[in-house]
Write a structure and sequence with these properties.
Helix content is 49%, strand content 11%. It is an alpha/beta fold. An 8-stranded mixed β-sheet has the order 6-7-8-3-9-10-12-11, with helices on both faces.
Length: 669
């Protein structure tokens, strides 16, 4: 066990990955499980009795700990003095009880101070990342690189010896280990979709940190505190043994060890054994409680999804905005004037060790009021990054929007400040995410989540928020809405969770709803119900919908128009009926041929040979050329532009293929 508890904290680096994020145990359930563990129960009883004895020391101590009685100095244990007397005739048991006050007080103060500082630094570092994380962690690494005992002695040497000096010195030592733990836990929770959902709803950073991140990292931190107290107890005893503890006549357990070893080691050895055994038992008790908490809070599976959820502007872009503070334009020059949302020439890059990889390349897409547009393609085609760009939630770093504009109701979203963008998210543009289990914060009830979505953007009281929440649950078809308000996400089925997600997204009646594969985690029956719900709500509220999916069947059932993405580019855009009847791009035809069709059971499904090119290995010409059966030299010569197709039955169909007009591709029948 190290002086700063680094070994204990190191044991906890995997604890947060074992905590069940999709259903954090209630305090009552945790307590009941701890009570069933005999060792943990005994340790908790011991620590409770020890704490009570320290708090009420004047009442339970048989003598005043500083009263001297030299005639009975070094008396052995007896009925009048159960642990004997020290070299000045003071009752040893009384000094041990009062010593617990100082030792435990110092340890609790050390952990409280260190954890308070670590929470602030670790939360900021882990949540914001980037340059902030780099600077804070380099400073933290310097602190961790200094031997803890040397650092503690250096800090303690600046002040007069005493309990306060020890507390300050150990607090500084413990800050670095705790900060590393908080930062690591924050990084993991920041990846959770429910944090992304909270950002999409327009929540402020302070609220996300306090209501989303902090409640979900408390389990590993609680475990760290118990191990930290044990480590601090060892450290306090060590510094007190070196003469840096409280000054006589006060005593801590460490100073009692020091005095006994210097004065009476060979005359009254029990005076060395008693505080030593007490320290050992107390450390063991804290360790047993910590292990019990780790086992109880660490049971279950994880709910991790490797997806980041930070704001989209880089530091340079933020500084440029703050320097100029432009006024958002009231109209959009050029483009499709009747569009509610117009994405124009959007390009997004992700920076890795191999350099910058363009995962979205020159994407243009328009959505009109009340229209449902599908965005379809294989996994990794850039669909989700495109939708996150609209919400300004592209993780930065490593992602960055390098080109283009995103116009919504006459405003370029990429020119707005963070505050202005927060006001749009969740109010005028809402988003429904893929997995409702991980997109809903497991530490909040359904009623709390629905109320928060309303209070972020409007001034409503608790009664109004509750009434509106009931209305929303009824709107999305959830039975017995009154009882659902008090339930947690893990108490609902997958279909009900997704309906709750939709209710949260619709709380402020947005004009645009972005649905990122909202039916992927659901069975076929529930998928159909969710699609019917979205269709009816879209008609009732008149909102536009951007539906992101890889399921062409869903596209055919729900959408008015569809854009097909491949390797970061839109390769075809058309009305749904036209695209299924006569696809213009070979990739679209391949997707349709691979889709099972009723009445064509005797035919083999088509297979698109090869694989999607990696973002760092994109060809110079058509990106589908290596997998295309119709490729020619013209396809390899130069990049292919997205142009209007002359052979399309609809005048506004677009295709990225040099042979689109001459090919006769088979569509879905």
């Amino acid at each position: 066990m190290s002086i700063d508890g680094t070994n204990e904290v190191g044991l906890l680096t995997g604890v947060e990955s074992a905590v069940e994020l999709t259903g954090v145990p209630h305090r009552e359930a945790v307590f009941r499980q701890l009570m069933r563990r005999r060792g943990t129960l005994i340790a908790m009883i011991y620590l409770t009795l020890l704490s009570l004895a320290a708090i009420f020391a004047p009442l339970v101590s048989p003598y005043d700990p500083i009263d001297q009685n030299t005639p009975i100095r070094l008396s052995p244990p007896s009925w009048s003095h159960l642990l004997g007397t020290d070299d000045l005739g003071r009752d040893f048991l009384s000094r041990l009880i009062y010593g617990a006050r100082i030792s435990l007080g110092v340890c609790l103060s050390v952990v409280a101070i260190a954890m308070a500082v670590a929470l602030v630094v670790g939360l900021i570092s882990g949540y914001f990342g980037g340059r902030t994380d780099g600077i804070l962690m380099r400073v933290n690494d310097v602190g961790l690189s200094i031997p803890p005992l040397v650092l503690a002695l250096a800090v303690a040497g600046v002040r007069e010896p005493g309990a306060v000096t020890v507390a300050i010195a150990l607090s500084i030592v413990f800050i670095f280990g705790f900060t590393r733990l908080v930062r690591g836990s924050t990084l993991a929770i920041r990846e959770e979709p429910f944090v992304e959902a909270s950002q999409a709803a327009g929540s402020r950073t302070r609220r996300i940190l306090s209501h989303r991140i902090l409640p979900n990292v408390r389990s590993p931190l609680l475990i760290a505190v118990t191990f930290g107290i044990a480590g601090a107890l060892v450290a306090e005893a060590g510094l007190a043994y070196l003469g840096l503890g409280p000054r006589p006549p006060e005593a801590s357990w460490g100073s009692m060890l020091q005095q006994a070893s210097e004065r009476v080691l060979f005359v009254a050895p029990w005076q060395l054994l008693v505080p030593g055994i007490t320290i050992a038992i107390t450390i063991l008790a804290f360790t047993v409680v910590g292990e019990g908490l780790r086992d109880v809070l660490g049971s279950g599976r994880t709910g991790r999804m490797p997806r980041t959820e930070r704001r989209g502007l880089t530091t340079v872009e933020r500084a440029a905005y703050l320097a100029t503070v432009p006024t958002p334009p009231t109209h959009r020059p050029g483009g499709r004037e009747d569009a509610l949302l117009s994405i124009e020439h959007l390009s997004v890059e992700f920076v890795s060790d191999r350099g910058a990889a363009r995962v979205v390349d020159d994407v243009s897409l328009a959505i009109r009021p009340g229209e449902t547009v599908g965005l379809v393609g294989e996994s990794g085609s850039g669909k989700t990054v495109t939708s996150l760009s609209v919400m300004r939630l592209v993780p930065s770093p490593p992602g960055r929007i390098v080109e283009g504009s995103i116009w919504f109701e006459g405003q370029d979203l990429l020119d707005l400040s963070f505050k202005q963008m927060r006001e749009i998210r969740g109010a005028r543009i809402s988003m429904v995410f893929q997995d409702p289990m991980t997109s809903l914060d497991p530490t909040f009830t359904v009623g709390s989540l629905l109320a928060e979505a309303q209070t972020i953007h409007s001034k409503v009281n608790r009664g109004q928020a509750r009434a509106r929440s009931l209305e929303l649950l009824e709107m999305v078809g959830i039975p017995a809405p009154e009882s659902r308000l008090g339930q947690y996400p893990h108490q609902l089925s997958g279909g009900l969770r997704q309906r709750v997600m939709i209710a949260i997204a619709l709380a402020n009646e947005p004009k645009l709803l972005i649905a990122d594969e909202p039916t992927t985690a659901l069975d076929v029956t529930i998928q159909a119900q969710i699609l019917d719900l979205l269709r009816s709500l879209q008609r009732e509220l008149g909102m536009a919908v951007l539906f992101v999916t890889h399921d062409l069947g869903v596209i055919a059932d729900l959408c008015d128009r569809v854009a097909v993405m491949y390797a970061g580019q839109i390769v075809e855009e058309a009305a749904v009926h036209d695209l299924f009847e006569r696809p213009q791009h070979p990739y679209t035809a391949g997707l349709l041929g691979a889709m099972p069709q009723v009445g064509r059971l005797d035919e083999r499904l088509a297979v698109i040979r090869g694989q999607v090119p990696l973002p760092h290995q994109l060809p110079a010409g058509c990106r589908f050329e290596a997998r295309c059966d119709h490729a020619t030299d013209a396809c390899r010569a130069a990049p292919v532009m997205l142009t209007e197709s002359a052979g399309s039955p609809a005048p506004r169909s677009l295709v990225r293929c040099v042979r689109a007009d001459e090919l006769s591709l088979r569509g879905a029948e």
